[in-house]
Amino acid sequence: MTDPNETFPGGIGTLLPQYQKRRALLTHKPGQELPAMDVDFKALAAMPLPPQELPRPEGMSRVAKKRHMLLGELEGHSELTLLHGLLISHLRKHTYPDEAPALFLRLWAEEEEWLLENLPTRWLISAVITFAQHGQTEDDRMLAQSMNILFSLMKIYEAERCFSGLPPQEPFRIKDRNKSPLPMGMKDFSVLKGDLEAHLLAPLWRDAKHAPAIGNLVRHLLNLLNADDSTVFRRFALMRETAQNR
């Protein structure tokens, strides 16, 4: 019998099968392997992607299905962008081609500037998350894991915010605040005087200085976050400005 007091009946451990299911190996057919370690990245960057074939052909391997999906998502980009997406897709799994980690690390070591300028932001986020498992230094792995938590929680929160009916650029009205206590005995956050944002974001900016592989990527993402007018941080800033003006 399930416990009505549990959000996840049976405990958090029951989520493991769902977590594992999405991490199964991307199988492939002959000729669908990753390129050799000495592949010319600049040549791939200059090679436009072909159009996505619709409807999707039958009998495709999991790798071919992933490539087909990426062709639709990355329309107008290059083969290097698609290779980056395929590498991340492999590295999110429990088992992946032996050469995938080294190829991913070489790509970021040699083509960081190009990747920062050309990858969609969602793929920059996916890239930094991938370093949490595959970074070569502890500083890179620890910082990448922190960025993973930051963006995952933002995604959950912003998904719930969609059900408020308000656009992401519109802050909540201070007078509508519900004063019910926060969960798990946490103290409330003060819109006017709270420093939680600084405690959350400033250490990420600081630690980027010591992360050799992802420091520039992390600061680039934090700058993008700062410039985005649709985040919880911007809404709190607007609420703070309104409260101070009153």
UniProtKB/TrEMBL annotation:
Source taxon at top rank: Bacteria
Record's protein name: Cytochrome b pre-mRNA-processing protein 3
Originating organism: Yoonia phaeophyticola
Organism ancestry: Bacteria, Pseudomonadati, Pseudomonadota, Alphaproteobacteria, Rhodobacterales
